[in-house]
Amino acid sequence: MNYEQAMEYIHAVQWAGHKPGLTRTRTLLAALGDPHKQLRFVHVAGTNGKGSTAAMMASCLQAAGYRVGLYTSPFINRFNERIQVNGVQIPDEELVRLVEQVKPAADTMEDVPTEFEIITALGMLYFAQQKCEIVVLEVGLGGTLDSTNVIDAPECAVITALGMDHVKELGPTLGDIAAAKAGIIKEGCPVVSYGGVPEADAVIRRVAAEKHAELTEVDFSRLKYEGGSLDAVEFDFDGLTDVHLPLIGSYQPRNAALAVTALRVMRAHGWNIPESAIRTGLETVSWPGRFELLRHAPAFLLDGSHNAHGMRATVQSLKDRFPGQKFVFLVSIMADKDVDQMLSLLAPLAVRFVTVTAHTPRAMPAEVLAEHIRAYGCRAEAADSIEAGVARAVELGGEGPVCALGTLYFSGDVRKAFAELVKG
């Protein structure tokens, strides 16, 4: 088997017709010797900021001298980004070897595992073989029934900012969504929550109390930040002063405050995480595709906000970093998202829009999206391909800023097309 065949196998099994639940993941892991039972975890759930928070915590734990696994989704450029050890993506040949190990076990199962369940098994196997001392594990969707939730009590359960997303799977209210996320809270494990949404906070507090899990909510009154530049955001949080965070979204200091709070809770439970390691980890963290500047002048930004909650944060960041400026937006949005709410947030900052169709069946066709945008009285044109869309957005942008956003699923293609265009 080569890398392409391994990828083909992983992507072959879709969710369609599968009932949500943990049975398939448990069966598959049992056939592989239960590698997850050899590992310790930080489990991260939430609507927005999961990946950034997970990346920050992994970076800080690595700076503290631990061998750290990081499991995230989706990927930006290559699948291998989803499974990392100490900041290094799983090598192609290792991935092939693991698929060759997992496939026979999965093939004998009556109820075939889904793509995400297979990837979770690959990750667990790799982290165990790599003898990771701690794994930062990002939930795929929800919490309770997410295949990452097969783990025993984590060293810390972390719940990031909550908002309305995936309502079809998780339920129509913030309370329902919080209940699904709170499914990662296990008996007696420390829990750190971003908080700030009363309806959701009440659910998380109740579940934590039921599980005898010590709950810490982030004290954002201790967070101070001045804004920042196009290179770093500077902030102080609860005694940690003048941190230069290279993730420049205005919302990132809040994610950092969550990560710092969680790391300090872990320290109180015996993990050796000095303040100096927290600072180093935050100042050296890398997390592509989240309010990332691909070019300073004229500015070309790439952002992964893919729901109304995330879009609100991105729009605030655009106003903070580019005061008074208007943008050419290159957009692709999934058809199952709250498209109109997302567009109503972007419209006041737009000079015009270029729409493209991301390479995923869930993407709204570019022409349909352009029509939606025109309904807001904005100028929009559909491009035939992501390459053509990037070229057109840059042309229309002239000396002004361009921002590509709406889904993480087109980030890799946008980055590649932009690099080719600039080189060309």
UniProtKB/TrEMBL annotation:
Residue ranges constituting the Mur ligase C-terminal domain according to the UniProt record: 289-400
Top EC class for this record: ligase
Residue ranges of every copy of the Mur ligase central domain listed in the record: 44-262
Pfam families reported in the protein's UniProt record: Mur_ligase_C, Mur_ligase_M
UniProt key word Ligase: yes
PANTHER family, per the entry: DIHYDROFOLATE SYNTHETASE-RELATED, FOLYLPOLYGLUTAMATE SYNTHASE-RELATED
Family per record: Belongs to the folylpolyglutamate synthase family.
Name of the molecule in the record: tetrahydrofolate synthase
Natural source organism: Faecalibacterium wellingii
Lineage per the UniProt record: Bacteria, Bacillati, Bacillota, Clostridia, Eubacteriales
